[in-house]
Structures are given as C-alpha cells and as structure tokens.
Fold this sequence. Notes:
The protein is of the alpha+beta class. The chain is built from 10 helices and 4 strands, in the order ααααααααβββαβα. Helix 2 runs parallel beside helix 5, helix 3 packs antiparallel against helix 5 and helix 7 runs parallel beside helix 10.
Amino acid sequence: MSTTLTGTPTARTARPRLLRGLTWLVLRQHRATVGCVLALVVLGSLWIVYQRAQLNDLLDAAGWPGESVPQPVVGGQYRNLTSLLGLLPGILAVFFGAPLIAADQEQGTAQLVTTQSVTRRRWLVAKLGWCLLVTLVACSALSAVFTWWWRPHRSVLPDLWMDASAFDTTGPVLPALALFLTAAGITIGVLLRRVLASMVVTFFFCVAAQAAWGMFRLHLATPRTVTYPLDAPLPARLDDAYEVDRWVASADGRLFGWGSCAEQTEKATNACIEEKGIVDNVFQYLEHGQMAAMQWTGAGILLAGAAALTAFTLWWASRRPL
C-alpha cells in the first residue's frame, strides 16, 4: 500500500529573511526594550514637531525675523527636551547596553544558546548588531528632527551652539555618543557578568565620559584670534562666536591677562595701561562656521571608540566561558 501526497503543505506565515532564525530570536527576546525605544522615538519626534509649531506661532506673532526678538523666547519645555536628549545616550547605555549580554550570563541563557547549533560568535554578532542598530536608528531620528527645529531658530534660542544642549543633540554627535556609551555598557556587562553591577558601573562611566567629552569638545577645532583696539566694542561678527580666551596686548605684541590692569580706581587703571603700553584687545574664539566640521570630527572619534569596544567585546566573549 502506498500513499501519494498530491497536495502542498500548509504554508506558514512567511517572515522576511532578515527576521528569521537567530535574528528573530534576538528581537523576540528584547522585544519589550526595542518597543520602548521605538515608542520613545515616535513620541519624542511628535513632541519636537509640536514645540517647533508653537515656536513658529510665537515668532510670527512677534514679527520675526523682520523684528528682533529678545532671548529666550522658549520656556521650560525646551529645557526639558534638551535635557532628555542629553540623557538619552546614557539611558540607552545603562538600560539597553549593560544588561544585553550580562543578563544572559547571569541567567544561564548564554550557555543554553551556545550549546545549540548556533556558534557563540554568531550569537554575539546578532545581539550586538541589533542593539547597536536600534540605538543608531533611534538617536539618528531624534537628532535629525531636533536639528530641523534648532538650526533655523538658533538665534532666538537660549543656548549657544557650543553648549552641550545644542552641540551634542544635533547633527551626528547624538547617535555617535549613544553608540559609544552603549558599546561601553555592553563591554562592562560582559566583563562583570552581573546585571545590577553592570548597570551601576555603566552609569558612573557615562557620567565621567560625558564630563570628559565636554572638556574635549573645545579641542575639536583650532581657535581663531582677532585683535581690535582697546577702546573699541567687540566686532559684530563675533556676536555668535564662542569665547575661548581673551587678553590685552601692547603695541609690540606682548600679551597680558584680561584683568591685568583691573585696578580699584580709573586713574590707577589708566596708569597701568600706559605703563605696560596696552593698546589692543586680543580675542580667541570658535565661530559657528566651524560647528559642522567639529561635530563630524567628534563623531568620527566616538564611532572609532565604539568600534574598538565592540571588537574587544567580541574577542573577549569568544574566548572565555559565558
């Protein structure tokens, strides 16, 4: 007796090739986190669009740009928004990066997965790849929307372009900083192998790293210098410049500190100026035209750091018991 199958098997719901096998398993394992991140992107983008519309209405009512508008013209909502964007890289590092591998190590999931047909390196690449991809997409989207709001209105907003609230939340810096801190969180988690300890150490690392980044930001471009007469006002072209340092100078080019002749009386001040031969102000600054190059340079450094940390994590986790 023989049986002939004349029909076709019931077709299962086809998944895109990208979401099959290990990729689907990783996304399913972290679906709650990924969903929260995507919801944050959608809600954050809508909030930025709403705030931009409110600002446009306010400026239109004031007659801007034909009429000058005193700063600031935005309130606490703008501060809340820039604060949240500034905290986002650290939040992703602590709650997304640090537990990514550490949770599997602590719960034994890593050992279970790597005893199956999937190699350890392939599992690590899938985990790290999707974590970093979600971080990149989320922060790039929010940075793009905020840049769309900030760039045409920066002259009426309360922050200078070199402030962290503007420099670190626009252009490529926000996604690059988020990738670096998230990669650092993953590395810390792999080394410590405990979720809570990894999150705590990652938090303090993020605080220290962002403080160091704030000091390093000034060195992303070469400051420019302008000299103008002692009694003259600051040139108008420097209104949007970020002051790095300033001095007073004599006719032969000798520099003195800005407060060198800050005497108690005007007569004493004038005598000091005459004695030292001071005739000029010397102003060292960074101008807004340097911002784009500075941001891309900084983003390149941060991305290189993220790549190095990711490579180290793969090397370390591939050669030691999970």
